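Troubleshooting entry. The earlier prediction with pyridoxal-5'-phosphate gave an output that would not parse, so I re-checked the input for stray whitespace and re-submitted. Clean input:
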Amino acid sequence: MRTSGVPETDVRRRIATDMADDVPWNRVLNSICTEPHPLGVEMAAAAAHTNLGDVRIFRGTKRIERKVVQLLLDLLGHPGGGSGSLVSGGTEANLIAMLVARETARARGTLTDRPEVVVSSTVHFSFTKVFGLLGLTPVVVPVDDDLRLPAAEVARRIGEHTVAVVATAGSSEFGVVDAVDEIGPVVRGRNVHLHVDAATGGFIIPFARELGHDLPQFDFSVDGVDSITIDPHKYGLANVPAGAILFRGAQDAGRFAVDSFFVDTPVHNTLLGTRPGSAAISTYAVLEHLGRDGFCSLTRTNFEVTAHLVAGLRAAGHELAAEPQLNIVVVKMEHAVRISQLLESWGWIVSTSKRFGETLRLVVTRHVTREMVDEFLPVLERARREVAAEAALR
Ligand SMILES: Cc1ncc(COP(=O)(O)O)c(C=O)c1O
């Protein structure tokens, strides 16, 4: 650290210089997080000083966190019941869900010396961190032809060591929604915790279903679902870092409870101690302001833009790796990695899969417009032609 500080104007200039290097949203096609809603940004700035780690001081902010949890439980089919916490994102939410699953098994007396969790081969990599931290062993079930976790196979893989099954509602790579409505019945009654990772799909599927999209029920309306991860900082348009873990059981969020040293300070139910109240405030502002109608309208636009992108890709002769269920489009493409690198050198960010051969993954969310798609498609074709010509010379 420098001995004497620099004037504010210099600090501002230096920060602005580095931040100017960040890629503008209108060139971003790989990110599930998006430009947050302006009201969320404004309210988060107003709450930048708040800390939900000290709820005696920030009791008003804590009240807002509780309201957000109730709003999310209501959105996900459990109005007036359940429990939950706002957390830093999908990873922490999944961690708390698995911890609660393990502790529930312990309380039931069914925890063995080798606790297992049944997951699909496309489960998010956050679970790799979680399983390592919690000493859980994944039992990996290959996805079916539709890239979904097959319920019959889940039923077969549940055994004496199983503490949890994880279904995904909106996979990171493909936006695929597992048939939670089929998985719920096979898990129910087997003393196993069913967690749904809806970090990506939680703010899409309820509204898409309202708009008539053929998507399965994935929330607490499915018997047997015990917990759900949903991320306001993805399709919920709140500021990073805003995730949420929700439980069907009114006491379940409290199963992960760590006491502090101090009298009158409540236990912590989250991994983070000091944590930003601004995330709760931002989420609350966006949920209240947009309401169901606002989210339905955003969802409709996202699907229209997705359809426009798919039509453009098909018109250019591309084949999709899977029919998109949500707003993630995966295109088969020779030399995908090289194309992605070339696009990045031209300022466009897309993603490529390490696991699904030569594919390009494009994510449509709030900042992706029809105009942006129309700008992108010719650039993609130019990149594809240049890389093909490069490859022909080799
Ligand atoms: C399905 C799913 N689960 C979990 C996560 C992890 O969320 P985070 O990066 O907020 O920790 C993601 C992130 O994209 C995701 O798509």
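This one parsed fine. The beta strands are 83-87, 116-120, 137-141, 162-168, 193-198, 225-230, 243-247, 328-332, 351-352, 359-363.
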